[in-house]
């Protein structure tokens, strides 16, 4: 059982993709095609969140086909790829949806997520994250690694709050 402590007031999950939903690896074929591995438990986390009324936003430093597939399949409206300064996008999303600080959480795994994590009251990272993320005030760390159930862990924690 997850040790995450999140408020029942959360309405939106804003997440990085690579390293949170994927295992942080990029696979390059001999002909130059790039692919990523997704754990179906994490994919199911998207489905469970949406079915339970949560909004999801993806803010990624990379553009990849896996994000497009998930966005279409789960009707994710806020998809931002090739983003170098994620904090600007996170602030835009928070403003657009008039979210209070207790109504969203941010999940990130690397230094390009540092500003967004620091900005967010509810913040999560994964075990393989660098030290400076793990030392942020108020951050929580999933038990599962990115791409190996971390996103599903967050989803199940939030869904469990609705049944209390």
| Span between termini | 16 Å
Which oligomeric form is depicted? single chain
Structural class: alpha/beta
Run of helices and strands? EEEHEHEHEHEHEH
Strand content: 15-25%
Mean pLDDT over the full residue set: 94
Q: Summarize the biggest pleated sheet.
A: 6 strands, parallel
pLDDT under 50 segments (min length 5)?
none
Helix count?
Answer: 6
| Count of β-strands | 8
Relative helix content: 25-40%
Which outline best applies?
globular
The rounded Rg comes to 15 Å
Looking across the biggest beta sheet, what order are the strands in?
A: 5-4-1-6-7-8
Explain the overall architecture.
The chain is 34% helix and 15% strand. It has 6 helices and 8 strands, in the order βββαβαβαβαβαβα. The strands form 2 sheets. Strands 5-4-1-6-7-8 form a 6-stranded parallel beta sheet, sandwiched between helices. Helix 1 (40-51) runs parallel beside helix 6. The radius of gyration is 15 Å and the shape is globular.
In short:
The protein has 164 residues and is an alpha/beta fold. It has helices at 40-51, 65-73, 86-96, 114-119, 131-134, 150-162, and strands at residues 12-15, 27-28, 34-35, 55-59, 78-80, 104-107, 123-125, 140-141. It has 6 helices and 8 strands, in the order βββαβαβαβαβαβα.
